[in-house]
Amino acid sequence: MFKYEEYEVDKTLSYFIKKLWILDNSTNSVEVTGKSVLPNGCFNIAVVQGNGLMVTHQGREQHLTQGTYFCGQMTEAISVTITNGSKATMIQLHAWTPVHFSSVDMHQFHDQIVPFELAGIDLDLMSKLPGQNAQTICQNISLLFSQNLTVSVCSRLIYLAAMILLNNKGCYPIEKLAEDIKCSSRYLQKIFKKHVGLTPKQFAVIIKLRSAVDEIAYPQPEQSSFISMAIDNHFYDQAHFNNTFKSIVKTSPKKFNPPDYFLSLKK
Prior knowledge:
CATH architecture of the largest domain: Sandwich
Helix content: 25-40%
Number of strands: 10
Distance between the termini: 24 Å
Number of helices: 8
Strand order of the largest sheet: 1-2-9-4-7-10
C-alpha cells in the first residue's frame, strides 16, 4: 500500500528544514501514477531508494534511480510516477537555507533535479542516506549543516526578505520589501536570484499561488469565489489569476483536483 507521510523536525533543525515528506511505495507491487508536485518556494533534497521515481517537467522525463538528489526551485508542476518497491524521503529546505552552506549560483538549478554532488555542498555521507530512516537522515543532514555553516550579511537579508514575503502570503511590494530590510531593490534582486534561484517577484508569485491552492484544497465554510480569491491574493483580476494558476499548476482553478497532487497535510 502506498503511503504519503510528513514529519516535523526538532527546533535545532527547523531554521533550515521546513519538514520531511515521504513517498513510500516500498511494499506496493504496482506503481503510483497520475500525481504531481507543485512549486512552493522551497528546495528539496530527495533521498531515493528502490526502483526510483520517474519525473516529467517542462516536457523532460527523468528517471531518478537510487541515490541522493538536489531539487532546485521549481516554477511549474512536476508529474511524478513512483515505481513499485520504491521510496523517496524528501528533505524540504527553506528558501534561505542554501546561502548558509554554498556559494554556488542556485539559479542554475531552478527547474532542475541533479545528483547532490553537483549542488556544491557534497559530503560523503550524502551517498549513504538511501536506506536510512527519517530520524537518521535528519541527524546526518544536521551534521552536514553544522560543519558547513556560513552566516553573512547576504544570508541575513535573504532570510528577512523571504520571511516577510511568506508572512504576507507573497502580497508585498518588492520596492517596500527592499526598503524595509535596508538594501536596494537591485541588490535584493541580485542576491535573491543567485542564492534562492528566483527573483523576489517570482518567489512572491509562487507563494501567492500556493495560498490560493490551499484555499481551494481546504475550503472554509465561507469559501470565497474565484474572483474574491484573485483579489484577496493580490492578482490584478480573475484573468490574471487564472493565467498565473494555469502556467504554474497546468490546469485552471475550476478544474483543479486536489487528490491529483501531493499537497501539504492540513494541521
